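Summary of Year 1 activities. Much of the first year was spent building the evaluation harness for sequence design. The harness presents a backbone, in tokenized form, and records the residue chosen at every position. We chose the following record to illustrate the format because it has been used consistently in internal testing since the harness was completed.
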């Protein structure tokens, strides 16, 4: 066995002789060693994670409360405050417990979309394995936050409301709702990549920039919707507030 590294398909330009998006991202191997391999989806996910880590480190290494702060710190503070407000208003919480999850999901999806301006970058969110992994994180977060906030009895009780006969339907509904989140994100991201790739074969100079600009707007909206839905589902079970007598 020998370590093999192949960036040929990873570097295919959308206006070259091949159309990006028609081949499954998970099937394109970048690094392989025997039966073990890293495909384009995982490799590009690492790039996104590394970029988020780098930007976060650069913005927080010299935090300042003075009037004069770096533009990067100002931009990230605006993003965090905006998501904090959205998370608190959506969940009704005031302790920012959903902020970390919302910020992580939003940042990963947004950066994945921003990097599509690099012609050879295939967004990991255009692979169903990635979007389903994100949806699985939300699926795990639902019982975590529900039991943490209201207890296990309140979490289990929601499956038999309004009547116990609704138990199978409520279980199926929760699973299918999370599955639909991942499927919706995958469909929107992949369709944009494929449409831009097909058009670039006919209009190689104008189509990529136009479609990527439109895709940037669509991807930003998808990142916001996914993060917001994650908050809605994970905050669905709350501690009951008893009225004061």
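For this record, the design step produced the sequence shown next.
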């Amino acid at each position: 066995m020998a370590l093999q590294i192949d960036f040929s398909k990873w570097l295919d330009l959308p206006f070259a002789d091949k159309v990006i998006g028609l081949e499954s991202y998970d099937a394109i191997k970048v690094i392989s060693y025997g039966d073990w391999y890293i495909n384009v989806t995982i490799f590009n996910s690492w790039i996104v994670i590394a970029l988020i880590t780098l930007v976060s480190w650069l913005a927080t290494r010299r935090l300042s409360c003075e009037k004069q702060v770096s533009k990067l710190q100002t931009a990230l503070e605006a993003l965090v405050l905006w998501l904090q407000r959205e998370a608190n208003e959506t969940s009704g919480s005031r302790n920012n417990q959903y902020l970390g999850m919302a910020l992580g999901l939003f940042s990963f999806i947004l950066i994945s979309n921003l990097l599509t301006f690099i012609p050879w970058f295939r967004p990991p969110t255009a692979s169903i394995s990635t979007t389903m992994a994100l949806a699985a994180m939300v699926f795990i977060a639902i019982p975590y936050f529900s039991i943490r906030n209201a207890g296990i009895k309140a979490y289990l009780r929601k499956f038999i409301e309004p009547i116990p006969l609704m138990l199978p339907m409520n279980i199926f509904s929760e699973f299918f709702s999370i599955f639909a989140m991942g499927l919706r994100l995958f469909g929107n991201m992949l369709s944009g990549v494929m449409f831009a790739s097909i058009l670039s074969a006919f209009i190689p100079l104008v189509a990529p920039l136009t479609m990527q600009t439109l895709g940037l707007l669509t991807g930003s909206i998808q990142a916001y919707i996914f993060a917001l839905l994650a908050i809605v589902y994970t905050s669905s079970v709350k501690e009951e507030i008893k009225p004061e007598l």
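The longest strand covers residues 29-33. Quantitative recovery figures across the full test set are reported in Table 2.
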